[in-house]
Q: What sequence folds into this?
């Protein structure tokens, strides 16, 4: 049995309160949201195992701060999907708009279509798999976690990057400051293989290139003072 | 923040419903811009006449007897359709400049002119603005609309979008331009003048000026990426076309949808929820620094 929440009948706050209570109660009962009509802040702040399916596209900040829950959007997601996610799985069947998975600490964000600009900005441990392309300034100041892109990456990938790992199968339009291509070692192939499997992605780890931090911006360099 | 919507019909069947569809899209964007709203709508073009949309703060006085008085003054018959604070003045194409001069001399504000385009904009909630002008009843081939949350110039009728700076051309904008004063001066040197202090009107005047110099819609929109500084998602309308461009940073949201029947633009997907066939439409986010346009 699943619980259906109809957003043409039920206000957003009530929908979120119902989902949050069900997650907290660890009921793990499937919940389906219909008539989403691109609403903002749907299925946010879930703190416990729960399966949520959104029929249709969502607006800003869907599945933000997710913990343990599995949220699937059967459409496209607006800006800031799965922002500050802690754990669980968020799947977007269509495209995701800007700053998908921003500041995420953990869990898997699986985007079946494209993600636009600033995907994974300031990510702090989340794993993001994008089956299509990503836009400019993705993984800006990314600190930890893995960003996997089956398609191409836009301008300034990984600008001012810390220790996040970026795997791109297609082309990279340009690398950001302090982001460089790195050797793909066996442990990276292992990580990538597991992530591709979890995301149901049809790709081989060997097809990817790895990018990471050159670690030149970690400390202030007096010789570069004139460049600031 | 501001809200933008646009709808360009590819098939004639939906033409009578253009106003209704655009109005629903516009009202959905109220959260993004509750202080003013406006719409430019393109109907049937008449080859030898021009529609001039004017606005007055005191429409009862300003529009009373205007038809006869203006006909006398410019020496050709004109017709006038009054809609709330606006009036659409229909004049023979050859008498357009004389009519605009006469209307401005009477203190009327020119919203725009063209063979096909009419512009309606006012201060107030989008739903109230739409009701005052009965936007729902309007038909046409394409239209663009804007809900404003002012960040730059005053909340006035003249500060509301769309802005029209040439016949049948108009622009709506989400964002803010930082070099608009410099560009306003540059355009003034070329003899291109704006009517308000608003940054978007400068963007509109820039595009019109480029097109007057022979640029295509694509070239003029590409020019905004080079010559205008600031944040922008622009949607522009011409007599037979509809164009979209976002600045290279692209932090102002945009989403598009296309079916066999239409191309739609909105700041958020929510605005598409009631469009016919949206569940099967191709929905995508326009790329930064990339010009999109459709022409019939």
A:
């Amino acid at each position: 049995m699943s619980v259906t929440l109809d957003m043409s009948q039920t206000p957003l706050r009530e929908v979120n309160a119902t989902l949050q209570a069900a997650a907290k109660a660890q009921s793990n009962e499937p919940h389906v949201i219909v008539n989403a009509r691109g609403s903002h802040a749907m299925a946010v702040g879930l703190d416990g195992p729960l399966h949520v399916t959104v029929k249709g596209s969502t607006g800003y900040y869907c599945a933000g701060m997710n913990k343990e829950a599995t949220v699937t959007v059967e459409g496209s997601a607006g800006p800031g999907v799965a922002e500050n996610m802690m754990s669980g799985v968020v799947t977007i069947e269509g495209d995701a708009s800007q700053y998908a998975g921003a500041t995420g600490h953990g869990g898997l964000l699986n985007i079946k279509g494209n993600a636009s600009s600033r995907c994974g900005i300031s990510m702090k441990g989340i794993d993001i798999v994008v089956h299509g392309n990503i836009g400019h300034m993705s993984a800006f100041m990314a600190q930890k976690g893995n960003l996997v892109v089956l398609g191409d990456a836009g301008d300034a990938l990984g600008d001012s990057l810390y220790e996040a790992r970026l795997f791109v199968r297609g082309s990279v339009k340009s690398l950001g400051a302090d982001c460089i291509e790195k050797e793909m070692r066996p442990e990276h192939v292992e990580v990538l293989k597991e992530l591709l499997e979890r995301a149901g992605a049809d790709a081989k780890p060997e097809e990817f290139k790895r990018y990471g931090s050159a670690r030149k911006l970690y400390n202030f360099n007096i010789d570069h003072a004139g460049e600031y | 923040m501001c809200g933008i919507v646009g709808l360009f019909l590819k098939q004639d069947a939906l033409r009578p419903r253009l106003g209704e569809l655009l109005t629903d899209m516009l009202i959905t964007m109220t959260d993004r811009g509750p202080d003013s709203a406006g719409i430019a709508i393109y109907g049937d073009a008449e080859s030898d006449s021009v529609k001039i949309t004017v606005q007055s703060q005191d429409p009862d006085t300003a529009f009373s007897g205007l038809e006869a008085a203006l006909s006398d003054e410019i020496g050709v018959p004109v017709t006038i359709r009054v809609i709330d604070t606006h009036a659409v003045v229909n004049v023979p194409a050859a008498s357009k400049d004389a009519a605009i001069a006469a209307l401005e001399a009477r203190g009327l504000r020119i919203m725009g002119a063209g063979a096909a385009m009419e512009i309606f904009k006012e201060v107030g909630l989008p739903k109230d603005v739409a009701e005052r002008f009965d936007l729902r009843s309007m038909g046409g081939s394409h239209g663009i609309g804007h809900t404003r949350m002012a960040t730059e110039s005053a909340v006035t009728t003249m500060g509301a979008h769309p802005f029209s700076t040439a016949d049948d051309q108009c622009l709506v904008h989400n964002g803010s331009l930082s070099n608009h004063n410099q560009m306003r001066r540059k355009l003034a040197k070329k003899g291109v003048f704006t009517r308000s202090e608003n940054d978007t009107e400068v963007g509109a005047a820039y595009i019109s000026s480029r097109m007057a110099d022979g640029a295509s819609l694509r070239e003029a929109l590409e020019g905004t990426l080079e010559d205008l500084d600031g944040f922008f998602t622009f949607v522009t309308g011409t007599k037979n076309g509809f164009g979209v461009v976002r600045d290279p940073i692209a932090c102002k949201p945009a989403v598009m949808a296309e079916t066999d029947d239409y191309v739609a633009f909105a700041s958020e997907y929510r605005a598409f929820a009631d469009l016919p066939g949206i569940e099967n439409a191709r929905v995508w986010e326009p790329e930064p620094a990339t010009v999109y346009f459709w022409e019939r």
